[in-house]
Amino acid sequence: MDKSHSTCPGPLLFIAHVVASRSLSRLLRALARRHRIEAAWLDLPLRPLAALDQVEEPGGTSGQARSGGGLGQREMALKGVRQALILKPASASRSKRRRSRVPINDLLEYWIDISRRRTLTLEDFALFFERAQDSIEYFAEFYGWTRLKHIETSPDKFLTRVHSMAWWKDKFLKAAKEHNRLSNNDYAFMKNTAKKFIPRIRTCFGQDIIAAIDGKTPLQDGVAILDLSSKLTYRWAAGIVVSNHIATVLIQLSRFRNGDKYSDDIKTLYDNLKNRTTNRKLRAFLVKSFRRFEDADKLRNRCAHVLEGEPTKQEIQQSIALARLLQKHGAPYARTRRIRD
């Protein structure tokens, strides 16, 4: 064996030698060992590494590159490795995370709900770690953290502790499942974490929360109210919001003229739209969904009149699904009528 191979080369020379010898799997393992601690924060594109499989010298052949000789081969290999280790621009990675993360106003509502809820289950404990990690991602963007050492050296030790707990969530979940219940420590930890997240989110993301709330649709408001609590008052509020939205959509699709008199109950509006519409697809949907609109009309009466009975969460969810289907089938018809008008 050659002496240069028997001695332990520097990290970059070792990577260059591995690349030149076409040992791509060894290269990936070496990179993983070298950056194991920061793996959660690095974004390593693998395409440049695949291209290094056939590194050539200027004026040389691919066979010469595979032989491992020559200074040009090594320089080109090192250049490719450096390009592979460069982080993506912050703007691109942040925009990608925004599309997949939970909205910040939903996170705030979640932490408020956890802080007020009396009973917490194992399912709540599992979701707790996911929402904690989602919250940490927002603060990482706010403070400009790009590596693990940034959060470890943060002056806000609360965020550091929460990040560590989220990292070891499998261990805590396993211990909780073995006892088939939450321990007092887990319960207290969830409550204290929620209470500490609330003022931090309001302080750092106040403008984003206001903009998100103002941009919500009535259906999103109904879903948010229903998710806050299963109390009867919350079901009343969510049911009224959703049923009023269904009535509003029916009125918009009916295109009443000025001076036309009509009732605003869902059943009457449904019959009127079914008889007046000239859109075959919309009419077919209305005929097929006859029972659903009857249930939505009953839900509205239950939420507005106490003697009609209490609305259930399932009934409200069915009305939310009906409202979404009505918007989906009515949108093309509304655009057509707008163009004709």
Could you explain the architecture of this structure?
This protein is 73% helix and 0% strand. It is mostly helical and 341 residues long. Helix 18 packs antiparallel against helix 20 and helix 19 (290-304) packs across helix 20 (313-340). It is elongated and about 70 Å long.
Q: What kind of sheet is the major sheet?
A: none
Number of strands: 0
H/E element order: HHHHHHHHHHHHHHHHHHHH
Mean pLDDT equals: 75
Summarize the structure.
Helix content is 73%, strand content 0%. The chain is mainly α. It folds into three domains: 3-87, no CATH class; 91-214; 218-340.
Which descriptors would you attach to this protein?
single chain, about 350 residues, mainly alpha, 3 domains, 20 helices, elongated
